[in-house]
Amino acid sequence: MKITVVGTGYVGLVTGVCLAYKGHHVICIDKKKDIVEKINNMEVPIYEPGLDKLLKEVIASGRLKAATELGKSVAESEVSIIAVGTPFKGDEIDLTYIKAATKEIGTALKERDKYHVVCVKSTVIPTTTDTLVKNYLEDSSGKKLGEDIGLAMNPEFLREGKAMEDFMNPDRIVIGAYDKNSFSIMEKVYKDYFKAPIIRCNLRTAEMIKYTANALLATLISYSNEVATICEKTGEIDVKEVLEGVVLDKRFNPRVNGKLVNPEMNKYLQAGCGFGGSCFPKDVKALISYSIAKEHIPRIIDSTIEVNKEQPLRIISRLEDSVGTLEGKKVAVLGLAFKPETDDVRESPSIAIIKELLEKKARVHGVDPKAMDNMKKIIPPDNSLTYSTEYKSALEDADAVILVTSWPDFVQIPPEDFIRLMKKPLVVDGRRVFDKARLKAKGIRYIGVGLAY
Ligand SMILES: NC(=O)c1ccc[n+]([C@@H]2O[C@H](COP(=O)([O-])OP(=O)(O)OC[C@H]3O[C@@H](n4cnc5c(N)ncnc54)[C@H](O)[C@@H]3O)[C@@H](O)[C@H]2O)c1
Ligand SMILES: O=c1ccn([C@@H]2O[C@H](COP(=O)(O)OP(=O)(O)O[C@H]3O[C@H](CO)[C@@H](O)[C@H](O)[C@H]3O)[C@@H](O)[C@H]2O)c(=O)[nH]1
Hints:
GO terms for molecular function: NAD binding; UDP-glucose 6-dehydrogenase activity. Belongs to the UDP-glucose/GDP-mannose dehydrogenase family. By secondary structure, this protein is an alpha/beta fold. The protein has 2 domains: about 1-200, NAD(P)-binding Rossmann-like Domain (Rossmann fold, 3-Layer(aba) Sandwich), CATH 3.40.50; about 215-450, NAD(P)-binding Rossmann-like Domain (Rossmann fold), CATH 3.40.50.720. About 45% of the residues lie in helices and about 15% in strands. It has 18 helices and 18 strands. Strands 3-2-1-4-7-8-9-10 form an 8-stranded mixed sheet, sandwiched between helices. Strands 15-14-13-16-17-18 form a 6-stranded parallel sheet. β17 (about 425-430), α18 (about 435-440) and β18 (about 445-450) form a beta-alpha-beta unit. α1 packs across α3 (about 50-60), α9 crosses α11 and α11 (about 280-295) packs across α12. The radius of gyration is 24 Å and the shape is elongated. The termini are far apart.
């Protein structure tokens, strides 16, 4: 099947490469020339484990190409998948890129005389596909939906850092479609290639499934963080023990032959310094603003954002409680990416933490094995702020370290390094990954989220 993917960022590139690997012929379109050139030269423009190898394979086999213009490719394809960004801007979702991509596809469809399905993969709020996208498409193509063109909404659930694994082995494939033809063509994209239940629904339901999934996962994180604060304020309760006691319920973590089969869910029932990334913050905010526009004040998901905003700052105030003023003190921030195995720093809690430390006149040394360059673009280095990719120079003479991202390099730091390199070692564990007892036994002071002593 010939498929055009419009928008070759994170989702578009993974989608294009995986569909080509499964046997489809894919053209990936992006406005950015440098992305297109890199792809055609078999270079991956983002860091994502496993993508490199497959990209080389599909380019070499001729099943994937990249281009900046979509006209020819759309006219020759059965399906166009829209995977452009849908950021949150001001106080609502920004659909500028969706509008532009839809218009361009519609214009290109004037040249096609066979049925063609336009599929929205970008995360868009309910009713976007069956109103805005439908209207733009019909206006720009001069064709009628259901007669000459089809429309589908197929949300993506991949996680950064695990994108290849998630795309290749999806838990479910959600296909919202306008008509029968659109369903059957979209099924042809997936059915024979992926082993997953296909959920057939209308366009709005598909849009809402995506938001509900992200808002629920983000809410679990904020819920865990709220419980953490209650534990901190009580004393002699460790939120880690509490949540471990909760997740062993088989309704969260079913067992097969006595073994846990879904411990991944436990990551969302853990206390820490908050969630970040390119999706949770913007999607939860978009759902809130959509709900308000529909005249419903969403109390639970509103608090999800509020708790998350406070979480990085709570860490700093606990550090201050322990060491007094931060002015002139050196603080090592371990981890800049919003989670391990990615170079993505968008909305990472490390941004709020570094800004707050600088505001309090601390000297900051940020460390990350992959995300340092991306962070430099957001908060450039200066006299008070240094970056590196390894932790040892950051620990040297530091008054405290704050663990923000649980990269294995950091989790495995031997306590001897804290003792040897730091002034009077103090570890603030923002992800609860260190062995508190082991550190304390070596005389290292320890502050953990959700732990008062
Ligand atoms: N990143 C994720 O983990 C993830 C997972 C699931 C869903 N999503 C959703 O997928 C969508 C895309 O996210 P992303 O992270 O891949 O975004 P991204 O910013 O990495 O990529 C978007 C790409 O689209 C290109 N683009 C914009 N307008 C274009 C046009 N008219 N023609 C051609 N190219 C165009 C941009 O140049 C950019 O490279 C968003 O709606 C996001 O919410 C993202
Ligand atoms: O090893 C981990 C993994 C996650 N987290 C926390 O969980 C949050 C979210 O992680 P994750 O869900 O893996 O992030 P994303 O890659 O942004 O993926 C989410 O957002 C995507 C975009 O919509 C969806 O497709 C995914 O299903 C959804 O999980 C992070 O900010 C962290 O707070 C950790 O602390 N450590």
